[in-house]
Design a protein that fits this description.
alpha/beta, Rossmann fold, five-stranded parallel beta sheet
C-alpha cells in the first residue's frame, strides 16, 4: 500500500502535521497515533519511521532505498518494535529499549526509533518505565506509539506525546472502493469492519485461514434451525480450524460482527452490508437478547488473554452463547 497517498488523501490533517515536521526538521520526540480498530496504525508508524531515516525523503519515505526496505523487514539496526496486539507489554520490553538505545548507534543516520503498538496493552510497571523514558528522551531518539482506545491511555502518557488522531474511512466508501478493486462483495463488507484501507482488505481476503473460518461460520448458521446438525457441524469443523489463538480471535471477531449487525438490523431494519442481510434476519428469528449475546461473546474473547484451553473455550461458546435460544 502507498501510505503517502493514504495519508494525503484519507488523513489530510495527519499528513500536513508530519509534512511540516519533516520539512522543517522539527520532529517531536514522541507521537501517539490514535485511531479506531481497523486503522493501519502500526503500518503508518513504520512508514513515518522510514521517513526519518530514508536516504531520499520527499519529505516522506521513498519506500525504495535500503533503509526503507530494512524497516519494512524489521531488520534496521536502530529500530525496535513492540507489538501490544501480540501480547501484553511488560517492563522488560521497555527496559530492552533503554538498554539497546544506550549503546552507540548501529546505523550511519544515528537516529534511533522505537514503535510501541497499542500502548493500552501495557501493564503498570511498563507504563512507569515508559514514562521515565519519555520524560528524559535521548538525543536523536524518536517514538511512535499507537492506540485504538485513547480513553485507556493514561493522561501522563498523553501529556508527554504529540497526539495525532486518524479518522476511519466511511464504510460505504471503503466497501465501494474494495469492490472496485475486484474484492468479492461479502469480503469487502465483512473485512471493512476490521481494516480501514483497501490494500489490507484485499490482502486479508486472500488469506486461506480467513476464508475457511468465514465459510465455516456462514455454513454453521445454515443449520441454526436444526439443533443436532448445528452441534455436529460445530464440533466437527471448528476445533480443526481454530488451533491457534490468532484464528480463534478471528472466529470471535466475525461472530461478534454478525451479532452486532443483527442487533442493529433488528432496530433499524436496514443495513449497508447487503450481502449479509438475510443472515441478519435469520439470527433475529432464532435469538433473543442479542445485546447479551454480544457481551457474552466479548467476554469469551477476552479469555484468550489468560492462556485458557481453546477447546474448552469453544465448547463453552457452543453451550452458552450459540446453542441457547433465549
Amino acid at each position: 500500500m502507498n501510505y503517502n497517498d493514504y495519508l494525503k488523501n484519507k488523513q489530510p490533517i495527519a499528513y500536513k502535521i508530519f509534512e511540516n515536521a519533516f520539512k522543517n526538521q522539527k520532529v517531536f520526540h514522541a507521537y501517539l497515533l490514535s485511531g479506531e480498530a481497523g486503522t493501519p496504525l502500526l503500518e503508518i508508524a513504520k512508514y513515518l519511521a522510514k521517513s526519518l531515516v530514508c536516504l531520499s525523503p520527499t519529505p516522506f519515505a521513498c519506500d525504495e532505498c535500503s533503509n526503507c526496505k530494512r524497516i519494512d523487514n524489521e531488520i534496521y539496526g536502530d529500530l525496535i518494535i513492540i507489538d501490544g496486539r501480540k501480547s501484553t507489554i511488560h517492563k522488560e520490553d521497555i527496559q530492552r529499549i533503554e538498554t539497546e538505545f544506550s549503546k552507540t548507534s548501529l546505523e550511519k543516520k544515528g537516529i534511533k526509533i522505537y514503535i510501541i503498538n497499542l500502548v493500552e496493552n501495557m501493564n503498570l510497571d511498563s507504563i512507569n518505565a515508559l514514562l521515565k523514558f519519555l520524560e528524559e528522551p535521548s538525543e536523536n531518539t524518536y517514538a511512535f506509539l499507537t492506540t485504538e482506545n485513547e480513553f485507556r491511555v493514561l493522561p501522563t502518557i498523553l501529556s508527554r506525546t504529540q497526539v495525532v488522531r486518524l479518522n476511519l474511512i466511511d464504510k460505504k466508501d471503503l466497501i465501494s472502493e474494495s469492490e472496485e478493486s475486484n474484492i468479492p462483495t461479502i469480503d469487502a463488507e465483512l473485512l471493512s469492519n476490521f481494516y480501514n484501507d483497501v490494500s489490507t482488505i484485499k490482502e486479508a481476503s486472500k488469506d486461506d485461514c480467513y476464508q475457511n473460518i468465514k465459510n465455516a461460520i456462514l455454513e454453521l448458521f445454515d443449520y441454526i434451525s436444526d439443533k443436532e446438525r448445528f452441534r455436529f457441524f460445530y464440533e466437527k469443523t471448528f476445533p480443526a480450524l481454530l488451533k491457534t489463538t490468532q484464528n480463534v480471535r478471528l472466529f470471535f471477531d466475525i461472530l461478534i460482527f454478525i451479532f452486532k449487525e443483527s442487533y442493529v438490523y433488528s432496530i433499524e431494519k436496514e443495513t449497508i452490508f447487503k450481502s449479509l442481510e438475510n443472515l441478519f434476519k435469520i439470527v433475529n428469528e432464532h435469538y433473543k437478547n442479542l445485546d447479551l449475546k454480544i457481551i457474552g461473546l466479548m467476554d469469551e474473547r477476552n479469555e484468550l488473554n489468560y492462556n485458557i484451553n481453546i477447546n474448552l473455550l469453544l465448547l463453552h461458546v457452543l453451550n452458552k452463547i450459540l446453542k441457547k435460544r433465549d
